[in-house]
Structures are given as C-alpha cells and as structure tokens.
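FORM 7B: Structural annotation worksheet

SECTION A. Query
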Amino acid sequence: MKGKKKWYDYLWIASLAYLILGFFNILFAWLGLLCFFIPLAIAVVKGNKAYCNKYCGRGQLFSLVGGRFGLSRKKDIPGWMKSGYFRYGFLIFFFAMFFLMLWNTWLVFAGAKNLGTVVTLLWTFKLPWHWAYHGTLFSDGVAQFAFGFYSVMLTSTVLGFLTMVLFKPRSWCVYCPMGTMTQLICKAKNVTPSQKQ
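SECTION B. Predicted structure
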C-alpha cells in the first residue's frame, strides 16, 4: 500500500503552471529563478540533494507523464549520458549559453541592443513570442532576461521530455545541470578533514 502523498508530491503542478504562465506573460519567467536558487541553497545548507529527490516539480512531471501515462519507453539511459564527461560537458555548455543570455540582457539594459521578443528553443530555433509581452514599468532589460530565461527553462523541459520518451521517465535528472551542480556542492561539503589533506 502506497503511503499518503505529501504536499511536495504535487510540485509538478507548479512546473506546469510556470510553462503556461510564461506562454501568456513572459515576465512570469522570473519565477524560474526559484528553481535555480532553492536547489543550490539546500545543497549548501543541508549537504544533500533533497531538492532533486523530493521537491523537483519537473522531475515529478516527467515521472507522471512518462510513468503513469505510459509515454516513456522505460529503457535504460546510455552509458555515455551517465558519464562524467557528458554531464560536466553539458554543464559547461549550459553555463556558456546562460552567460550568453546574461550578456544579451546586459546589452538591452545598456541600450546597445533592442529587446528581442523571441524564445530561443534548443539554443537554435527562434520562436516569435511577442504576444506574451505586455510592457513593463522597468527597463526592457527586465523583459529581455525573462525571454532568455524562459528559453532556458523551455529548452531544458523539451530535452527532458525527449529523454523521457526515449528512455526512463526521469532520464533528464541524470544530466540536469542543476543536479550536477548540487552534486558537486554536496561532494565538496561532505569531504572529511582527512580527505582534504
């Protein structure tokens, strides 16, 4: 008999709501920063991956769609995708794309570039997303960050769904940049004094 569900078992609703809200108003994309800072904070404070194991709404969404709804082949992820080379390589690539997004945001803040009302999917395909921007009281740079950040979140969700369909439901978790970062933090935090010498 399965145990009673806890409040955090429903965080997949928050992940789904985030994607929907960003479709209608891009400024909601700023909420995605919670998915960056909370896992890192838990890893730093607690020294564990509780966020990945319990609180990640995206992982829950993949489990639900791939597992309960049967949209996953449930095959083992290839060994090369589990390797440190791939995971750390993907993390470096992800950071490069993230800093490029920040650079573009800075250019808009500085007035050197106009606001681009597009969402870039898979770091390549520029999708018009102008209907989701209704203006802001702040600089256009605020909206530029939102478009860029939503692009990152949507791209990682699409990659997660692709690997969910091809392999096991939560295959994305194997190479998720946040998971890799929190794992590195946990390893550093849990090193004993004798190991440091």
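SECTION C. Observations
Residues 21 and 140 are 19 Å apart (CA to CA). The chain has one domain: 7-192.

SECTION D. Sign-off
Analyst initials: ____
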